[in-house]
Amino acid sequence: MTDPMALVPADLLERVVRGWRELSPRLVPLGRDTPQGAKGVFVNPPADRGSTVLFSSVGAMEQAGQGRYGDELIYGAMGTPIGHRLEQAIATIEGGTHAQLVPSGLAACALPFLAYAQAGEHCLLSDSVYGPTRRFAEKVLRRFGVEITYFPPTATEAELRGLIQPNTRIIFAESPGSHSFEVQDVPMLGRLAAETGARLIVDNTWGIGLFSPFAHGAHVSVQALTKYPSGHSDTIIGAVTVAREADWRPLRDAAIQAGQVAGPDDCALTLRGLRTMGVRQAQQAATALAVALWLQGRPEVARVLHPALPSCPGHEYWQRDFTGASSLFGVVFDAAFTTDDMVAMIDGLSLFGIGASWGGYESLILPTTGGISRQCPSVTQAGPTCRLHIGLEAGEALVADLARGLDGMSAARHRHGPA
């Protein structure tokens, strides 16, 4: 059985896992109490469940209501103690000052638009954003009179300057791009946003703990905590983090006005999962890199879209701006194969689950051809594409499973000839 780790150069392996190893010790104490004197504390903070908060007087209730921009306990739909702990932890990891928890990753993508955009204003979105983010822009924002333009994720500064309008208020990037994995020049986007008075929002779900959004010019960072922080495929939760008070107050107001808050049980599960994110991802990222390098050598594969590899658009920005890599990447198959060929191969795998989402401990595979909307040319248009998330299974077993599938795909193509 092939050991894919033998394909990984030692220096590249160290480069991919370094950020996770550096992050791991920081995760252990976040959001936890420390014992004081003779009083003991639980290792995991309890999840306080509640809607109504009782006060000693009307005056006390009114005073608490003035603390909505902090961690004041006001009403369950405005935050809970376990939620505030998780918000503090996420803000620390992202390098921000405040975080707002919401019920899903999509809610985290949508909330900044509700907070910062108005009818008649213009938003510039990367063409590679998460599909539901694009759907929200098309189905909701346009209906409310917000203008939308998509830009190529590999656009140059000059090209972007040509797309910015006097009423551009938001530049929304996702780096790496959803499904196509282009790494963007976020510092350049940050400079443009600063010059034009726009806010730069970055979906940093892939890069949590590995990319510092605010140090690279972002005003707002979006996280689907469902993924790596939760890590066990059993919660739906998101977060929006900021580093300036001017960004925090409208964001917090929008969350309250739209009723966007995460439940205490999801917060507790995510805070617990966060403790092991570094060690989980160090292992998973190493295996993912090995599987990606193995796939790169297969004749059926035209291109591997893994930010740590030169075959991925924007690889140079990953080298410059990230401290490690994630366990999610894409594959473009040779154009001689059809989407049906790829789907049959995927259906025959035994170790890879077929399903949406990623970030858990289990390996997943998902066909992406036919499920991607693009206005600009994309690397995913060169042949059938799929996305792989590598879990904690042994790399040898994963490549053996993929080898059987790819061998079968090639044999079927030779038997039946071109479509």
Automatic annotation (TrEMBL):
Its cofactor is pyridoxal 5'-phosphate. One of its GO terms (biological process) is L-cysteine catabolic process to pyruvate. GO terms for molecular function: cysteine-S-conjugate beta-lyase activity; pyridoxal phosphate binding. It holds the Pfam family Cys_Met_Meta_PP. Keywords: Lyase, Pyridoxal phosphate. The modification N6-(pyridoxal phosphate)lysine is found at K227. It catalyses: L,L-cystathionine + H2O = L-homocysteine + pyruvate + NH4(+). It comes from the Bacteria. Belongs to the trans-sulfuration enzymes family. NCBIfam families: cysta_beta_ly_B. This is Cystathionine beta-lyase.
